[in-house]
Structure formats: C-alpha cells, structure tokens
Design a protein that fits this description.
Largest sheet: 8 strands, parallel, barrel
Strand content: 15-25%
CATH topology: TIM Barrel
Number of strands: 9
Structural class: alpha/beta
CATH superfamily: Phosphatidylinositol (PI) phosphodiesterase
Helix content: 25-40%
CATH class: Alpha Beta
Strand order of the largest sheet: 1-2-4-5-6-7-8-9
Bound molecules: SN-glycerol-3-phosphate, magnesium ion
Mean pLDDT: 97
Length: 232
C-alpha cells in the first residue's frame, strides 16, 4: 500500500509544517498530503479556516496579511509554510497530494503545478489535487487536464464512485469511518485507485491491506512502513 504522510507526520510533529513533512519523508512516506488555503494572494499550508488551533494567531486565515502569517508559530517554532516551500521540500523525494481547503485554491494550485512541471524536474504524476469540493476539482481539470485529481468523500454516495469517474479523477479518497467494500469494488471496477484516510492503528492498517485498498493516509508513516512486507 502507498503511504501518504497525513499533514506530514502529524502523529509526531506539528501538522502541515516543514519539520513534519521532513519527518514523514524520513519515515518512508511515498506521498505527502497537505491542506491548502488562500490568504493575501498567497497559498498557505494549513488545515483549518481559522488560525487558532494550530498557530499562535487568531481569527480567519483569509483575513490575515502575509506579513502576519509569515511570523506565526505553527508549532515548535516552525512557520506556516507556503505551497511553494512545500513543493521545494518534497520535489524529487515523494509525491505531493495537495488538498484544496479554501476558496480560490483551485486556480492557484493548478498554475503552481503547471509551472513546476514546465520549469523543473517533476512530472504531472508526482501530484494529486484532492478536495471534498468536487466543483473545485472540476475547475482544476478544466484549467489543466494533465493534473491528476482525487475525489474526497466523507460518506458513501448512492452512485458509489460514478461521480469520481465523471470528474476524470484518478482516485477516490475515502474516510475510514464510512468504508464500504461496495465503494472500493466500484472504484476499482472504474479503474480508480482507492486511498483511505486517516488510518493510524496497526489493526486498521492491516485491515486496509486485507481489504485491498491502494494506499492510506496516516499520521504515523513509520507504523505503516514497518508493516510493509519485507520490513519486519
Ligand atoms: O486528504 C485526506 C484527509 O486529509 C482529508 O481530511 O480533514 O484531514 O483534511 P482532513
Ligand atoms: Mg487533508
């Protein structure tokens, strides 16, 4: 199974920071998953719409100025990284899954990926853009059809993975709490990969392997790596 370091190695280091991402890479993550928000014309790597939980700032991210965001502490003295900083860190070492969390991210992220692919080493397949907001994914597909997209689901749609296929997605990203073998089978029958979030316990990691999913998002990349065949 492919290992996505969820917000880096969130179980070991402050989420969505460069140290967390560095640690996930050291622990064997194949991909890094991050969350993207827009503020003051820049794309920031942050999960919440507000600053309060993960930084020493307060209020809505979208109300903050770049000069403020640059100086906030996102944990253990690390800053909130920009998307460009994370791309620099991950390039050539792992794939990068950018989850669109905030309005305005689709256009910025699509342009940023296209720019990387055209000016640096990465390939389109080094990126996946995902979101619970499928309209934003559609916008990414329209802006740059080469960018692979993953359709995030919180539950199980009545038409299973049909909407992901219609979107031209390469994968469905499914929540562990609503995991249904029918959804997994349907996605596979449509040629879509199945990635499950957020899988942290050894029992659940082993169960995902038995269910035949293609990858897991985990806060503990080291645990998933240790359970890989050949790593015992
Ligand atoms: O992308 C998988 C997972 O990160 C989606 O949920 O809330 O952790 O961003 P969340
Ligand atoms: Mg996420």
């Amino acid at each position: 199974m492919i290992i996505f370091g969820h917000r880096g190695a969130r179980g070991h280091a402050p989420e969505n920071t460069l140290p967390s991402i560095e640690l996930a890479l050291e622990q064997g993550a194949d991909w890094i998953e991050i969350d993207a928000q827009m503020a003051d014309g820049e794309c920031w790597v942050l999960h919440d719409a507000t600053l309060d939980r993960t930084t020493n700032g307060t209020g809505a991210v979208t109300d903050a100025k770049q000069s403020t965001l640059e100086q906030l502490d996102a944990g253990n003295g690390a800053n909130i990284p920009t998307l460009a900083q994370v791309m620099d860190c991950v390039a050539g070492r792992a794939g990068l899954n950018i989850e669109l969390k905030g309005a305005g991210t689709a256009g910025f992220v699509a342009a940023a990926i296209a720019n990387r692919v055209q000016t640096a080493d990465p390939d389109w397949s080094d990126f996946i853009v995902s979101s619970f907001h499928h309209g934003w994914l559609q916008a990414v597909r329209t802006l740059e059809p080469n960018i692979p997209v993953g359709a995030l689901y919180l539950g199980v749609p009545v038409d299973l993975a049909a909407s992901a296929e219609a979107l031209g997605a390469v994968a469905v990203h499914l929540g562990l709490d609503f995991l249904d073998p029918a959804m997994i089978d349907d996605a596979h029958a449509r040629g879509l990969a199945v990635y499950v979030y957020t899988v942290n316990s050894e029992d659940d990691l082993l169960r995902m392997a038995q269910l035949g999913v293609d990858g897991v998002f985990t806060d503990f990349p080291d645990r998933a790596f240790a359970l890989r065949p050949g790593n015992d």
